[in-house]
Specification:
single chain; alpha/beta; Rossmann fold; four-stranded parallel sheet; 5 helices
Length: about 160
Amino acid sequence: MKILYICTHNRCRSILSEAITNHVAGDRIVARSAGSQPAGVVHPLSIQYLTEASISVDGLQSQSWDEFEDFKPDVVVTVCDAVAGEACPVWFGNSVKVHWALSDPSKIEGREEEKAAGFQTCITQITERVNKLISLAEKNLAPAELKSQLAKLGAQ
């Protein structure tokens, strides 16, 4: 299964989702991430907390969804509410599309402990969803059933 995670700026939540999916799922799922309006740089705390969790950050970059036309994802997951309402590129037409709302830990202001807790919560939430996603990927579900099951994961 190929999955593309999307958020507006592709600097935090979609980056975390890509890295965690590739780490947890191994070769069972190929994950990439992109943004509708990419920032061009990965948030430094995304890199810091992925590294602290022993998750590879090699190759992570903030990039446009336009660069993934040839990727042909089976699943497109939006992870921020803003991009969930945007019109996706036509070439996503055959992909199952689902929204997994994630709170943005990069917007937390305050003490380092609060920021760390926000990132850890997001990382844990993504990891739990990916662990469930692996079993769905192995079932070869029809698109409608896959979409239904993925939507349930996003609601947790």
